[in-house]
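Folds vary. Our protein:
___
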Amino acid sequence: METINLMPRRRWIMIWVQETLHGTTLQELEPDERAVWFESLCAAGDSVIPGKICISEDIGYTNDQLARLLNVPLELLERSVKKLQKVGKIKLNHDNIIEIVNFNKYNPSEDALNKRRDYMAKYMRDYRGEKKKDKSK
């Protein structure tokens, strides 16, 4: 079994504007299914294992539980899960844990975001320092 590093739950997830408005999701999913998709992204962000919709490392929600969590009819949930699997947005494992495909690619960890922020802050300090040197010549 792989070692899983349980992280604090996220307070937000990234949504790519152009890809959402003009990407394949609009063609692949009906409006009610898109609502389940976006709520599933939120559930995966709120999970103890980011990117996976589950109760714990090896326990997934039943369809009934997940429908209640997302506040959608069971029929809509089941239809959406089938379609999301078909179009490759999710994977469903034997424990009924739903994995959002590419979740971590589009939603980096807090640590990665902090490193990027620190890098950019240093870059800007160095850049501004070089600009000041150029002006003083």
